Amino acid sequence: MVLMHMADTKTFRNWGLKSDHIESLKIAPRGVTQQPEDVKVQCDQTEIYPFMKKDIRCAFWVVLDPRKPPARGGELQFQTIYYATGGKQIDTGGSGLTIHRTW
Q1: What is the C-alpha R_g of the chain?
Q2: DSSP classification of residue 74
Q3: Is 42 helix (H, G, I), strand (E, B) or coil?
Q4: Sheet architecture: strand order including 2-13
Q5: Which sign, positive or negative, has the C-alpha torsion 47, 22, 95, 75?
Q6: Topology of domain 2-100, per CATH?
Q7: Is 26 in contact with 78 (CB distance < 8 Å)?
Q8: Nearest to 21 by CA among 96, 94, 79, 90
Q9: How far out from the chain centre does Cα 33 lie?
Q10: Domain limits, the chain
Q11: Is there a contact between 97 and 81 (Cβ–Cβ < 8 Å)?
């Protein structure tokens, strides 16, 4: 197994009238990318006050099986999906991550 640590920082704006925070982050394979064996996520849960912008950093650890090579020339592509309090999905314009396989 290969353990990879990655981090993603995004700027969020709270358009609501109450403060909120990023509760969780999920990653999902994009296209024919292999499914990770395991994913652990840790997000900055700092409050974002009404009408304010805030940079939020999320780190995650992905476990991949090196015996399952990616289909497209060594690239693994994942979509990042952010959730606020109460499980509300936040639209980030289709953000994602690309990993270039080196093993």
Answers
A1: 15
A2: T
A3: strand
A4: 2-13, 53-64, 38-43
A5: positive
A6: Immunoglobulin-like (2.60.40)
A7: no
A8: 90
A9: 15
A10: 2-100
A11: no
32 φψ region: left (φ > 0), alpha (ψ -120 to 50), beta (else): alpha
Give pLDDT tens digits for 50-100: 999 999 888 888 887 777 766 656 677 778 888 888 888 887 666 676 766
Q: β-pairing, 53-64 with 2-13?
A: antiparallel
Average pLDDT in the chain: 80
Q: Which two tokens stand for residue 69?
A: 């090579």
Residue that has been written with the tokens 């704006």 in this structure? 13
Closest Cα to residue 53, out of 14, 90, 5, 6? Answer: 14
Tokens of 96: 């994602």
- C-alpha distances (whole Å) from 38 to each of 21, 33, 60, 63 are 25, 14, 10, 5
Question: Which residue type sits at 102?
Answer: T
